[in-house]
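Risk register update: the risk that structure generation would not scale has been downgraded. Supporting records follow, first protein first.
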Amino acid sequence: MTARLPDAYFDAMYATSDDPWQLSSRWYEQRKYAITLSMLPRPRYRHAFEPGCSIGTLTERLAVRCDAITATDVAAAALHHADQRLRAAGRRQQVNLMRHSLDEPWPKGDFDLVVFSEVGYYLHAETLRSVLNREHSRLNGVTVVAAHWRHPVEDYPMGGDHTNQIIAATPGLLRLASYRDPDVSIEIFAGPDIGLRYT
């Protein structure tokens, strides 16, 4: 069993469409982004990590709330479209785009926001669990977002609810907020010593 869906799977998706998941046009996506951003407990973040950024639709919105973002994807075509989107929005300088997979050691950075949006279920359960256990020491004082489609997808190693359950079980994470409807589950977690104040 491989650790995750192979890069070739995503390359094939982008070979047939610039936006294979309709991230720019589906109401599901626009609504999910709005809910996700409204659930963030802080008005602004220093440095976000967004693995699986795809064509940068959420990245562009996060850039309004973040001084810097490290956004990654395994597909070169996705990163090309993200680059174009961010340049058009005047946000390119804030974002470091990297070709990188979530199961690899995370990029260097003092992150205070980590966003798993429609990405965790591309890994097998044990792989995602292993990644989070490996990186959990970097989540101290960090806001962690888990937002995943709840319906089964034949190609994906696991479903969205299972993905969020694995993230929730990461040592030290505290659940701050949850939203769930038939399509999506969005949860916000805090790493130890996040020190939130709602003022």
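Supporting record for the second protein:
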Amino acid sequence: MVKIDILTLFPEMFDGVLNSSILGKAQEKGIVQFQVINFRDYSESKHGTVDDTPYGGGGGMVLKPEPIFRAVEAVAGDAKPRVILMCPQGRSYDQKMAEELAGEEHLVFICGHYEGYDERIRQYLVTDEISIGDYVLTGGELAAMVVIDSVVRLQPGALGNQSSAEKDSFTTGLLEYPHYTRPAEFRGWKVPDILLSGHHANIERWRLKESLRRTRERRPDLLEKGELPDEWKALLAELEEEEKNSGSESE
């Protein structure tokens, strides 16, 4: 049996999906076990607060690290499940990854809302970041449903004819910069000093540079679709110089 835990602020969204069709039958057969958790229940605030304004300013709200860390640790126990962040910046999902995840015994999906996640969730909690396409949804719930459906249908016995699964075929811009919110230090992991500086021009430059860094590392194809602005070229040159210096220091 594969165990799938889903962390969300809207557990009611999963009622119909998980209890219908192939997913519902897979539960009845004991092939899969679903647990949907409202991570607001793990907030340390008496009001169940799970988000806060971003350090460095800007619009939107950012999900705090504490409730999500606590929720994942509660469902994981002593086990080490694959912890999956549904995120437009993640690895593009495909059938090969569906087959990979289908071989796991325990999956934990984190579904976010608002502007994004505190970066420490990405860095120190999740094992995978998954995107189902180059577009943005109002939250991670629908994306998680897509991935869960594709994984469960590959479980032995989930489909009436397992051979049907075996025959399955298979806007460009920069990826977003890292987000951080309160606390400024969490479990020894600190928010970058520049975001606490109050110097908005430097903050915006740092954000652009980090966006370029992330795009260059994860989706370099996005940088190959047209002529880049001079500022982007200058920052990319800085990144290359930093990598060279870093390589020299490590030798």
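Residues 3 and 106 are 5 Å apart (CA to CA). On this basis the risk owner (M.S.) recommends closing the item.
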